Amino acid sequence: MSADEHEDRDSKDQDLPDSGHHLSEEEVERALASFEAEFNENQDQVDHPARSDSSVDPAGSSGSAVDNETGLNSGSADESSAKPDEAHGVAADFDQELEGLIGNRAKAAVMVTRLASAELLAAFCQISDISAWCVQAREGAVAVLRNLDGGGPEAAIRDLTTVVSGLSAILAVNRADKLEATLWISGQSGQTLAPPILFAATADFVEDLMIGTTTVDRLRQDGATIFDSGEYDREKAMGIIASHTRFGAGGSTRKGRVE
After folding, report:
1. Is the pLDDT of residue 121 over 60?
2. I want to staple 232 with a disulfide (CB 3.0 to 4.6 A). Which of 91, 126, 151, 225 is the partner?
């Protein structure tokens, strides 16, 4: 290339406008700050995508599932802990029913008296070590015995008629669906009575108790007056007996009688 051509090209380059733009330091810092802010915003959108209102919180779902599972497990534990108690109760009821069927345990036993006061009969039962509910009746107070095992009913009326001298009572027992009624006096058994004769001369609830169509609790709900011998101690029982006893002249008890 000739010298003239070089000079001509240089002159053309000098005539062209300067296309470069030199940024100041402030402009550079603002540009970098804007770029960094935009980058952070885009990164947040990537890391935390928008969720609709109908979306389910995984943590919440997990918590609910855990709570539900815990509830089910606790419910199962409660049921399993209750089952042994229920099974024990069923077994006990079955044993008692079996004993009643074969006659080793009476299904029901009552002592029928001519006493006008069930409270007095309960006091007599207490001093005779007899556990019974004593029910008021116009025909005479009746003691419903708790101890039905073996010869428990016979032992109870023997003790009652021995401790309370001169008191006679009828023992009615249901063993293996067989009813027996026997008159007792002074600790000795005597005449045997046919159940229909006994039921005709006693309150209606006596027959209902013996055949199992009512209970002491049901009688109480129906408004019957019932005294529990187990609620008395000996001192209280003696006080009740004294309040029902009329003494003879001069305080003698020889001619005293029980009302």
Report:
1. yes
2. 126
